[in-house]
TrEMBL record:
Keywords from the named record: 2Fe-2S, Iron, Iron-sulfur, Metal-binding, Oxidoreductase
Single GO molecular function: 2 iron, 2 sulfur cluster binding
Lineage summary: Bacteria, Bacillati, Bacillota, Negativicutes, Veillonellales
Ranges for domain 2Fe-2S ferredoxin-type: 1-76
Domain of life assignment: Bacteria
UniProt-listed SUPFAM superfamilies: 2Fe-2S ferredoxin-like, CO dehydrogenase ISP C-domain like
PANTHER family for the chain: OXIDOREDUCTASE WITH IRON-SULFUR SUBUNIT
Cross-referenced PROSITE patterns: 2FE2S_FER_2
Name the UniProt record assigns to this protein: 2Fe-2S ferredoxin-type domain-containing protein
This protein's record includes keyword ATP-binding: no
InterPro entries recorded: 2Fe-2S-bd, 2Fe-2S-bd_dom_sf, 2Fe-2S_ferredoxin-like_sf, 2Fe-2S_ferredoxin-type, Beta-grasp_dom_sf, Diverse_Oxidoreductases
Length: 151
């Protein structure tokens, strides 16, 4: 089936299987920041925005994204660079595999709640798994990012 998508502000036409997930489609189009981890809604590696809200693209059928704005980390490069620097400065980038999904969630949080408490940050990041850091470095990095964006 042919589907017309808008990804990072660019309209694209893709041919997909009826049961193809958005993650597969995005990676097929070269959006490699969207990663495959669990395919069970448990890790957050595949996090993208659909009309500004976070979704897990491993469980979202591509055809459902037609008529909506899909945003990947590639579409947020400048802001992502600042967040990446903040995360790295706080030691949250050990293996880096979880980083892209974590970043998509953190940038969405900033838009929804620019001055969250630590508990609100933790609640918003539920579902973004990191097997290396224990999350405290992510929390410090995100706090730092939120402060630097506001400055």
């Amino acid at each position: 089936m042919d589907v017309s998508l808008t990804v990072n502000g660019k309209k694209i036409q893709v041919s997909v299987e009826p049961d193809e997930m958005l993650l597969t489609t995005l990676r097929g189009q070269g959006y490699f920041s969207t990663r495959r981890g669990c395919d069970t809604l448990n890790c957050g590696l595949c996090t993208v925005w659909l009309d500004g809200k976070t979704i897990l693209s491993c469980s979202y059928l591509t055809y459902r994204a037609a008529g909506h704005e899909v945003t990947t980390l590639e579409g947020l490069a400048d802001e992502a660079a600042l967040l990446a620097d903040c995360l790295a400065a706080e030691g949250a980038d050990q293996c880096g595999y979880c980083t892209t999904g974590m970043m998509m969630s953190a940038m969405a949080l900033r838009r929804q709640n620019p001055n969250p408490t630590d508990e609100e940050i933790k609640d918003f990041l539920v579902g973004n798994l990191c097997r290396c850091t224990g999350y405290e470095s992510h929390l410090r990095g995100i706090r730092r990012y939120l402060q630097e964006v506001e400055a």
